[in-house]
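QA checklist item 7 of 12: single-chain prediction sanity check.
[x] sequence parsed
[x] length recorded as 208
[x] structure emitted
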Amino acid sequence: VAEADDAERERRRHQMHEPYRTILGHFRHEIGHYYWDRLIKDSEWIDAFRGLFGDEREDYDQAIKRHHEQGAPADWPASFVSAYASSHPWEDWAESWAHYLHIVDNLETAVECGLSLRPRRKGEPAMKPDIALDGQRTTSFDQIISRWFPLTYVLNNLNRGMGLPDAYPFVLSTPALDKLRFIHEVVGAAASRVPTGEASELARPTKG
């Protein structure tokens, strides 16, 4: 409930030195915990998960306590999407999951709006010429990322033109991208197993 209060959420953002904190991001993070139980726990993915995110059997309460007392490692950007992601493998998954949803949701919006990026300055290093976002949706993670980075350049510059913070204040390291790729593969595999018309079953809470 506190996250829905703008003043309290902003206070927490400053307290935790976060560049981004929104109610939507909070929802996506918490949904990530739910889907870890549905998609990863006791599944064929667990070993690959531990190889990328770490062993979730580490004491969670102690890990969170240590994070709040000592903060994130100084080199956290080299491996994680956020400082909080470094606290425990479960939080790394949830932060990465939220990040993945940010990416695919914004790209889907761009596609539905028929957006294409055709920079007039062909030598702009952050932009590739004639990036078509209005074509067919792609299931390739590499294509998703190749479309996403130029779009963030535009989003950030539009915000700066309005005197607002960057819409996407993140830099993704190779390990962080590997985690997003893993999530993409897990989601794709789960979706392929769900019969047409029964996709809602995957999102239905279990009893108990």
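[x] summary fact logged: The chain is about 55% helix and 0% strand.
[ ] second reviewer sign-off
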